[in-house]
Amino acid sequence: MKLSGAFVASSLSCAVLAAAPSVSPQTARLIIAQRLGLSRFHAIEHADAETIRHINTYGGRQQKLFGGDDAARSKAHLLVWIADAEQDEATVIINDGSDRTQDFALSSAPSPSDNDRLIQDLILQAESLPAYPDPQQRTYTSNFDIESALPPHSKSVAYNGYLSVWRTDKTDGMTADDMATVLGHVNKKAAETGFSTTVVMMPRAAANSKRAANAWGIYDLPSKEARRENPEAVLSSNPAPSTSPKASDLEDFPVIVQATNKGPVRGILPTCFSSMDACQSRTHNCSSHGECKLLHKGRGSGADQETVDCYGCACSPTIKHVDEDKGMESKTKVTYWGGPACQKKDISVPFWLFVGSGVVLAFLISAGIGMLYSMGAEELPSVIGAGVSGPSRK
Predict the structure, then answer these.
(1) Which residues, by range, are in coiled-coil regions (predicted)?
(2) What are the boundaries of each domain within the chain?
(3) How far apart are CA 75 and CA 61, in angstroms?
(4) Is 30 left (phi over 0), alpha (psi -120 to 50) or beta?
């Protein structure tokens, strides 16, 4: 399959402006992960200003400061991986649902086995994320548009409702014209519905090429147990503990690093969920401050069903040992939680103590001031001046 990056880029858009820069495979992985919404699994280790600039330039659309109209945009994304392309260097072409595409080259092309490993790891990371809140079902509608833009017999799978992956190689027998036509249809659908595309073209590997150690760099992978219990708990693929900041700084604002992998529960959550899995997934396992339970069973069944089962979070207090006392017991600090996902601290008792104390103190101060004012306004009794007379006249 003879396919060049410049040919496909020109077929996708007429606005490829400057010459494509060349980045390392590690930087390309950070860019791809940022575009797919998987940057929380990929650490920035000793990233220089040039790497951060490339990630900010090619990492996809940045969210507005207070959200804005980003909530109405489709989160669907199509990853096209073209292997065995007859070209000199690996190329990545990106489009964010507009009439303008960007592309950059890789300084060295990893082996096909490394590429397959990266694709499978990206899929595992996407499947471990909680589902996007999408009341208007725009993400899932875009997935149907992606399927209609691809060849009829292509093997494209949507993961976690938003990520579609299509991989093709020389065994599919597609010519350069066929591939350009397919990518042109994809670009047109992306402009209509607003989903993003990332096209990776890898040159044909040499017959004696060997798999390099960590050709794409080191990143984190979610464990199978963590995916069942907590959708955001990750297990590092590197045996040595990593203390470097995560690339999730680029999901909200560029060049702002977040030190934690667990994000807060976002959006307005319902008080009842239809299943235990939905409760654990949407509430991030009750923010680790409780557990999902069956709050009440539905009434009726079949045609006479009135209500369905209601699953929700049962919050439990967090007890923290502050320090050891001289006596037999240790001092503890108890924190109570509330909210549909146990994500809010219950400060009702301290609040009412503070408000009550403030009201009582204000009442005492005002009563004291009023008492002093009323005492000073009273007239002196006439008995005090009765025995007092002026000097006698001589």
Answers:
(1) none
(2) 5-252, 276-345
(3) 11
(4) alpha
Is 80 exceeded by the pLDDT of residue 89? Answer: yes
Q: Which amino acid is at 262?
A: K
Helix (H, G, I), strand (E, B) or coil at 43: strand
Percent of the residues in the chain that have a pLDDT greater than 70, as a whole number:
70
Span between the terminal Cα atoms of the chain, in Å: 138
Q: What is the DSSP letter of 381?
A: P
**DSSP reduced 3-state for 263:** coil
Per-residue tokens: 345:
């601290």
Nearest partner of 197 among 13, 393, 2, 6, judged by Cα = 13
| Alpha carbon distance 8, 181 (integer Å) | 9
pLDDT (tens digit per residue) in 224-261: 544 544 444 344 444 344 444 444 444 433 433 333 33
Q: Determine whether 78 is exposed, middle or buried from the number of CB atoms within 10 Å of its CB (0-12, 13-18, 19+).
A: buried
Structure tokens of 278?
Answer: 């939905």
Compute the C-alpha angle 292/139/25, nearest 5°: 95
